[in-house]
Amino acid sequence: MHGAFADSSSWNPVVRQLKDDGYQVVAVANPLRGLKSDADYTASVLKTIPGPIVLVGHSYGGMVISAAATGNQNVKALVYVAGFAPEKDDSAAALSAKFPGSTLLDALAPPAPLPGGGNDLYVQQDKFWKQFAADLPEEEAKVSAATQRPVTEAALKDKLQAEPAWKSKPSWFIYGTLDKTIPAQTHAFMAQRAGAKESVAVDGASHVVMISHPQQVAKMIREAAKA
User: Fold this and answer.
1) Integer distance in angstroms from the first to the last C-alpha of the chain?
2) Residues in Cβ contact with 139 at an 8 Å cutoff, skipping those fewer than 6 apart
3) Residue 198: other Cβ atoms inside 10 A
4) How far apart are CA 42 and CA 156, in angstroms?
5) pLDDT per residue over 58-100, tens digit each?
6) Which residue, among 214, 211, 167, has the nearest Cα to 66 in the 3D structure?
7) Fold of 8-226
8) Is the pTM of this model over 0.85?
9) Which of 4, 88, 217, 226 is the most exposed place for a label (fewest CB within 10 A)?
């Protein structure tokens, strides 16, 4: 499950490695419209997948998997890849601000009004590289900036309404030490709170650790699957 300002292709480097190992992989298209509706959609996709599932979420996608996996007995493990692991009544916006270090608000473009009310949010293209993907080549980051998918402002402020899935399922965490979107201190806090089986801070990695360090992310997903 990808997060805000991204799409399923952000998982391509990890998908290739897992497919080479014989794992069946589904990279779900996250609607990015609202936490409940995104989680309900994801839960419906999960019901189409037979057998045990390792559910992986990046960034805001961590909010979604924390809700979508609840009650699904096929989901055996959760992997948070620079992802939010909320407690009940937490929002992505609140968790981002829990500890200092996030510069996302300064990198956002002016809100784009939606026809039915509310706003879409984008990262300014000229700030995307340093904000989101500083450990990727600049030209690659420029492409990602141009193809980013917006998230609604409401989705980032939506609070988790139920008990999170990590309270009943084992979890793994991996994140970058130079994440400017969700501070490393926040990741460490969430991993400790969730009683993570393993928590790895990748030295020098940005928010898109699954693109810049796919081998390490794939390794953690394999470990979760084997466990």
Assistant:
1) 21
2) none
3) 15
4) 17
5) 999 999 999 999 999 999 999 999 999 999 999 999 999 999 9
6) 167
7) Rossmann fold (3.40.50)
8) yes
9) 226
